[in-house]
């Protein structure tokens, strides 16, 4: 049985303070994405900005041995791309930026996929649908619902648009640790799985492929890519389930 760590109102407020730092980090990185910038440069900018806030540290640096602070996944890379000075972004690329922050003893986690210069309309549509799926998943994070309701909401948006949901990778609980129970798949059936309770804090993170849902992991043991080489998008927020509805903790207004 999963062990669910429910958070108090005070703990959720602490997570929101870290989440604001994370939201500001992503906003900064979004503005730095352009043709000619390397993923290694983005990683350096993100890490320095996080550490510029007293007490805040990049949650991913060294986590399970990951070498960077920002997961930078380009085009057909779904998640866990390793930042490198040798990986230079080009016009028309898309890059997913996945960042974690540890602050006041709590973890928050968020991601977004950013266009590099002008991108093809079909790639913009992939980003738009994935962002919409995240919003639907967040809206489903309400008392009385279950984890399956979140997955169902995401899956419905994605598949209606003709895209596919990654099934080997899921959202998760977050807070005291970077990964907690329960798992939060991006597919499911209503009223199935863990029931949502006040104080539950979860990372909801649709990973959406333009083609097939299958994945494989590259030889670096980290980077997960689409099995057919088509593009993938990833959007994520840390969300608290509260009596007043879902509260996004990784927003500038958290």
Order of helices and strands: HHEEEEEHHEEEEEEEEEE
Number of helical stretches of at least 4 residues: 4
| CATH fold descriptor | Creatine Amidinohydrolase
Span from first to last CA? 31 Å
Question: How many structural domains are formed by the residues?
Answer: 1
What is the mean pLDDT?
Answer: 97
**Gross CATH architecture:** Alpha-Beta Complex
**Helical amount among residues, as a percent range?**
25-40%
Low-confidence stretches are none
CATH class category label: Alpha Beta
EC number: 3.4.11.18
Keywords: Aminopeptidase, Hydrolase, Metal-binding, Protease
Pfam families: Peptidase_M24 (PF00557)
GO cellular component, one term: cytosol
Topology (elements, then pairings):
Elements: H1 9-32, H2 39-51, E1 57-58, E2 70-74, E3 77-79, E4 94-103, E5 106-115, H3 121-139, H4 147-160, E6 164-165, E7 171-173, E8 180-184, E9 201-204, E10 207-209, E11 215-217, E12 224-226, E13 232-234, E14 237-242, E15 245-248
Antiparallel strand pairs: 1-4, 2-4, 3-12, 4-5, 6-10, 7-8, 7-9, 9-14, 10-13, 11-12, 14-15
Helix pairs in contact: 1-2, 3-4
Write up what this structure looks like:
- The chain has 254 residues and is of the alpha+beta class.
- It has a single domain (9-246), classed as Creatine Amidinohydrolase, CATH 3.90.230.
- Helix content is 28%, strand content 26%.
- It has a five-stranded antiparallel beta sheet with strand order 8-7-9-14-15.
- The two termini are 31 Å apart.
- InterPro entries: Creatinase/aminopeptidase-like, Pept_M24, Pept_M24_MAP, Pept_M24A_MAP1.
- It comes from Gemmatirosa kalamazoonensis.
């Amino acid at each position: 049985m999963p062990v669910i760590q429910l958070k108090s109102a005070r703990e959720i407020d602490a997570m929101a303070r870290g989440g604001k730092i994370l939201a500001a980090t992503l906003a900064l990185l979004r503005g730095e994405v352009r043709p000619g910038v390397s993923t290694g440069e983005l990683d350096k900018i993100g890490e320095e900005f996080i550490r510029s806030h007293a007490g805040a540290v990049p949650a991913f640096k060294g986590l399970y041995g990951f070498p960077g602070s920002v997961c930078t996944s380009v085009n057909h890379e779904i998640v866990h791309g390793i930042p490198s000075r040798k990986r230079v972004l080009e016009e028309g690329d898309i890059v997913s930026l996945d960042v974690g922050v540890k602050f006041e003893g709590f973890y928050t986690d968020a991601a977004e996929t950013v266009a590099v210069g002008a991108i093809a309309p079909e790639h913009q549509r992939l980003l738009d649908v994935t962002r919409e799926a995240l919003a639907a998943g967040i809206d489903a994070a309400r008392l009385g619902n279950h984890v399956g309701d979140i997955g169902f909401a995401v899956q419905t948006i994605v598949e209606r648009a003709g895209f596919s949901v990654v099934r080997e990778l899921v959202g998760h609980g977050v807070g005291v640790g970077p990964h907690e129970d329960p798992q939060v798949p991006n597919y499911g059936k209503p009223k199935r799985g863990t029931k949502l309770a006040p104080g539950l804090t979860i990372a909801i993170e649709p990973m959406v492929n333009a083609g097939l849902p299958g994945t494989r992991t590259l030889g670096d043991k980290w980077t997960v890519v689409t099995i057919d080489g088509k593009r993938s998008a990833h959007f994520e927020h840390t969300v608290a389930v509260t009596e007043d509805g879902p509260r996004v903790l990784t927003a500038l207004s958290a």
